[in-house]
């Protein structure tokens, strides 16, 4: 994962790298706020159901003493206000992160697409004729979206959301170590078995999907690029059947997992619908 993330960040323009660093910092802050907000709900519910826990729990007793509250009711109101404020700040930061992140992703995609086009235009003609133009079209138009809109965003989400998950797990372990450890073993073991069993299959399906997408684009370009000649020669049925055969491969059941994004990491936001593609060299 870190190798692919380094490759993706290596494709950033110099002026975008600091902006991505700022975005990652803001996302980590949002994840920490989310973890803290969720973590404080559990002791708050405990105090609501049993106010005597204020005195029996060391942390709550310390917090009650230093809060200046004169009664359990006042302390509950203070805790509710702090939780509301934490969620308000967290949601405001999340809204800004979405807006800033979308702008940054689109900017990075546009710059990478321009860079790819420029490199293709500057490539010696002898090398250009060795590559299919449909492949270059696909690289310049689609790969930037995959690199930044899917792969990079998914990996950044995994890294930042792990902070919130860590805060929640710490709270649960303190509250009920045995039950939390049991749930971690069961769920963690299930995910471990899944990702030990299926990654190679999903990677293979991802490459098949990308190959089919490239052949579809190539078929379209060959059909429409010489549409006049196709009509004159009466070859419409040939090009239609060839395109239909390639499109039928895309709809095969064994590709449904990749095409519908079920191979994305559970709980990730904006995760890729297929395994990460290697950034263009």
Question: Can you give a write-up of this model?
Answer:
With 281 residues, the chain is mainly alpha-helical. The chain is built from twelve helices and no strands. Helix 9 runs antiparallel to helix 11. The longest helix is centred in the middle third of the chain and has 51 residues. The radius of gyration is 26 Å and the shape is elongated. The C terminus is likely disordered.
Offer a concise description of the structure.
The protein has helices spanning 2-10, 17-49, 53-56, 58-67, 72-122, 125-128, 133-175, 177-197, 199-225, 227-233, 236-250, 256-259. With 281 residues, it is mainly α. It is elongated and about 90 Å long.
List keywords for this structure.
281 residues, mainly alpha, disordered C terminus
**Rg (C-alpha, Å):** 26 Å
The H/E string reads: HHHHHHHHHHHH
Q: Taking all residues together, what is the mean pLDDT?
A: 76
Strand content of the residues, in percent? under 5%
The percentage helix is over 70%
Structural class: mainly alpha
Poorly predicted regions: 256-281
Helix tally equals 12
Q: Count the strands? A: 0
Largest sheet, strands/sense/barrel? none
Distance between the termini: 18 Å
Specify the overall morphology. Answer: elongated
């Amino acid at each position: 994962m870190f190798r692919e993330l380094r490759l993706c960040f290596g494709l950033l323009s110099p002026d975008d790298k600091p902006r991505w660093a700022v975005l990652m910092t803001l996302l980590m802050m949002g994840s920490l706020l989310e973890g803290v907000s969720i973590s404080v709900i559990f002791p708050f519910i405990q105090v609501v159901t049993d106010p005597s826990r204020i005195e029996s729990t060391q942390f709550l007793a310390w917090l009650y003493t230093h809060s200046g509250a004169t009664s359990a009711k006042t302390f509950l109101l203070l805790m509710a206000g702090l939780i509301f404020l934490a969620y308000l700040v967290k949601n405001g930061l999340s809204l800004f992160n979405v807006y800033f992140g979308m702008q940054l992703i689109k900017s990075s995609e546009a710059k990478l697409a321009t860079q790819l086009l420029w490199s293709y235009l500057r490539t010696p003609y002898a090398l250009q004729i060795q590559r299919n133009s449909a492949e270059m079209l696909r690289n310049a138009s689609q790969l930037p979206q995959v690199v930044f809109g899917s792969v990079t965003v998914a990996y950044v989400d995994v890294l930042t959301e792990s902070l919130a998950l860590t805060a929640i797990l710490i709270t649960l372990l303190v509250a009920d170590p045995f039950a939390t450890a049991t749930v971690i073993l069961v769920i963690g073991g299930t995910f471990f078995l899944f990702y030990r069993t299926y990654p190679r299959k999903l990677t293979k399906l991802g490459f098949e999907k990308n190959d089919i997408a490239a052949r579809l684009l190539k078929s379209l370009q060959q059909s429409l690029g010489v549409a006049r000649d196709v009509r004159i020669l009466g070859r419409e049925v040939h090009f239609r059947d060839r395109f239909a055969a390639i499109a039928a491969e895309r709809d095969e059941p064994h590709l449904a997992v990749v095409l519908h994004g079920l191979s994305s990491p559970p709980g990730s936001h904006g995760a890729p619908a297929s395994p990460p593609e290697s950034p263009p060299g």
